[in-house]
Amino acid sequence: MADVVKNPTQSERPIGITILGVSFIVVAVLMSIATAMIGTFMVILGSYSTMMNNMISAMGGMFVVFIGILAGIEFAIVYALFSGKNWGRITIIVLSIVDFIVHCATLVVGNLFAIPHIILDVAVFFYMWKPSVVSYFNQEKSSLV
Q1: Are 22 and 63 part of one and the same domain?
Q2: What DSSP line would sit under the chain, residue for residue?
Q3: pLDDT in tens, 75-95
Q4: Do 99 and 129 fall within a single domain?
Q5: Pair 37, 69 in one domain
């Protein structure tokens, strides 16, 4: 029956941050699966090809390393979002700006499928500046004072 009194500087994780975190987890897991599949496929394909063995292995290795690094970055962003690290918020803002610019460029050349992405990028950008979201990411600094 005792009520839990929260510290005024402590804020709960906003639902939008949870949704973003889950979406980043899904993408990171899919990238990890793709890394394993591409690596396995390149090993199998390289062993059957006598002429292109080294080329296929080198290209497959580069793809596996690149996608693996991207998956690691995705997991790091998930950690920052769920733990309230301010660099996670800044990373999401930067990624939404870069994604917005890329999708605007593809819209100019006729990619109409970029419109939902542009809307989502703008929504995420402005959501990350909401006072409740900013206070969630700044709670670590304010608890040290």
Answers
A1: yes
A2: -PPPPPPTT--PPPHHHHHHHHHHHHHHHHHHHHHHHHHHHHHHHHHH-SSSHHHHHHHHHHHHHHHHHHHHHHHHHHHHHHHT-HHHHHHHHHHHHHHHHHHHHHHHTT-TTHHHHHHHHHHHHHHTTSHHHHHHHHHHHHHH-
A3: 999 999 999 999 999 999 999
A4: yes
A5: yes
